[in-house]
Hints:
single chain, D-Maltodextrin-Binding Protein, domain 2, 20 helices, 14 strands, 14% strand, disordered C terminus
Amino acid sequence: xxxxxxxxxxxxxxxxxxxxxxxxxxxxxxxxxxxxxxxxxxxxxxxxxxxxxxxxxxxxxxxxxxxxxxxxxxxxxxxxxxxxxxxxxxxxxxxxxxxxxxxxxxxxxxxxxxxxxxxxxxxxxxxxxxxxxxxxxxxxxxxxxxxxxxxxxxxxxxxxxxxxxxxxxxxxxxxxxxxxxxxxxxxxxxxxxxxxxxxxxxxxxxxxxxxxxxxxxxxxxxxxxxxxxxxxxxxxxxxxxxxxxxxxxxxxxxxxxxxxxxxxxxxxxxxxxxxxxxxxxxxxxxxxxxxxxxxxxxxxxxxxxxxxxxxxxxxxxxxxxxxxxxxxxxxxxxxxxxxxxxxxxxxxxxxxxxxxxxxxxxxxxxxxxxxxxxxxxxxxxxxxxxxxxxxxxxxxxxxxxxxxxxxxxxxxxxxxxxxxxxxxxxxxxxxxxxxxxxxxxxxxxxxxxxxxxx
Length: 454
């Protein structure tokens, strides 16, 4: 027995420091595992990540495909925020409350392009996870909207561009329908559109031109497009004038479409984007403004009419350039997520050429992966993609600032008053200018309302 104790004593003396080191490492591992159980995953343990977005049929297909491939390792749980139930502002507030509370339950979330600066403080910086060689495969128009103060804080899931929808079958009422259709694809002037209305044989039976004119962001998009069409540079900083001749002209056009020329019915004053599409289909409108892919939800109920709908460039002011606002949704990873590695794995999957093709083929979401546009076989099967890619080169970004939504709300409220005939175009813009200077944070950065031609 004495011999055994002597051997143990010699062993402890010889390996004392190694024993202490192993003990410290074991304790540290245990503590870290308790603080963040997702840091060290055992083989076969499935991690669930929550993904908040408007979960369309395309989203469902991709989530199912991803979950199948990563079965037993990662499972994406969709959190549906449908456009039909939540306006963009309501959706923004829901996400804001969740992130402000530092909830760890939200991992990946989609934001409108114009929200990036607002949500940047709650998003995980992604520069280390998306190196330059990977960004080269993404459209520059799209990746630009994901950068805040020189830092990549999101990735572009899909991009949008404002378009003019038209019914090809109804257009045949014109004797020169083929010529008109060719001109539409190049972009006609607003004066040309008014002339078409005056000589349209069916004008008493069908709405001619629809656009969302409620006091919300969709109205702001039309206003910005009319400004950009005049090649003007405008700033939305509180100290900058808003009621310029170009801005008055942009707003006056929308007023005249409804109240003077009457080619747009007054019902649009209560329309958001989701209201325009069913009204246009039900009442057989000839023209209406929208975003690519947003009609796919009506495939089952309006297949015959959808087969006759085509896309063209938005009208522009004579002497100006055809312009359209960029839209689209970007993905962010919550800084409070405890599952960032798995969230990034899912995001990388969504940016692949395969996933982007599924998004477009299923719902018409415009790809941000440039490899899709270079696939001649896929583009031949989807001929409209070539034309939409051309339209993207004539887009303009809305201002990038955390104050943008506040300023946009002020402007659209006054634009709507002018459309209703309560004030003149100049009075509306002057009132918006005064309100911005009074209420918006004085340190808000200068923001461009329209860009020079690309």
